[in-house]
Amino acid sequence: MSESITPGDDDVLIVVDIQNDFCPGGALAVPRGDEVVPIVNRLAEAFHTVVLTQDWHPHGHLSFASSHLGKQPFDTVTAFYGSQVLWPDHCVQQTPGAEFHRGLRIAHASLVLRKGMNRLIDSYSAFYENDRKTPTGLVGYLRERGVSRVFLAGLAFDFCVRYSAEDARREDFTVIVVEDACRGIDVGGSVAATQSSFAALNIRCISAQKIASGAPA
Ligand SMILES: [Zn+2]
């Protein structure tokens, strides 16, 4: 457990969906989601390469309960790629809810990756849409930059962070989730399911204090 980690050139921090709609007061608030903002700001200072993801849906997106007659948020439907949880309308393109939390201060982030833009496919993961086949291009971006180890933080632990971590493992990156820099929604035991999936896939969970603070050399 022991010694601290000093991120280097082959490490990336992916900051997942720290947007107004996922924070208290937002359309799909993750409980205490805003608490991660100062933790993530501090964490990001230790990384050369930081990627921000932004959930960015068109109106009438398939993942919205309002797009399905008679359905409520947290019901599920069968999409062409399998089961899909329905959510309140959230992170609609060009709305205040889709903007990053105003406290997020990561000026040196090199990429803002938008996802969930295809009206017919949801995209929890930063790497693949929910059909688990359509790539976002992030694997190529990271490989070209020589990244081999992926650190993840953000919202929500048991959905977008989980899917991103699992896909990163599938792509053969070493994956570390900074657990106290995440918050979960916990629908139907999804936090516990995430923890056992991470253990099975050799995805490590650590706390932010394990990362050596300050600007990288
Ligand atoms: Zn979404």
Blueprint (SSEs and pairs):
Elements: E1 11-16, H1 36-44, E2 49-55, E3 76-79, E4 82-85, E5 111-115, H2 138-144, E6 149-155, H3 157-170, E7 174-183, H4 190-200, E8 204-206
Parallel strand pairs: 1-2, 1-6, 2-5, 6-7, 7-8
Antiparallel strand pairs: 3-4
Helix pairs in contact: 3-4
The chain binds zinc ion.
Zinc ion (ZN) binds at residues 55, 57, 63, 90-91, 116.
Could you characterize the architecture of this molecule?
This protein is of the alpha/beta class and 217 residues long. The chain has four helices and eight strands. Helix 3 packs parallel to helix 4. The relative contact order is 0.21. The structure holds zinc ion (ZN). The site of zinc ion has 6 residues, from loops.
Characteristic terms for this protein:
single chain, 217 residues, alpha/beta, two-stranded antiparallel sheet, binds zinc ion
Briefly summarize what is shown.
The chain has 217 residues and is α/β, with parallel strands linked by helices. 19% of the residues lie in helices and 21% in strands.
For the CA atoms, what is the radius of gyration? 16 Å
Oligomer: single chain
Tell me the structural class: alpha/beta
Widest β-sheet, arrangement of strands? 5-2-1-6-7-8
The profile of the biggest β sheet is: 6 strands, parallel
Low-confidence stretches at least 5 residues in length (pLDDT < 50)?
none
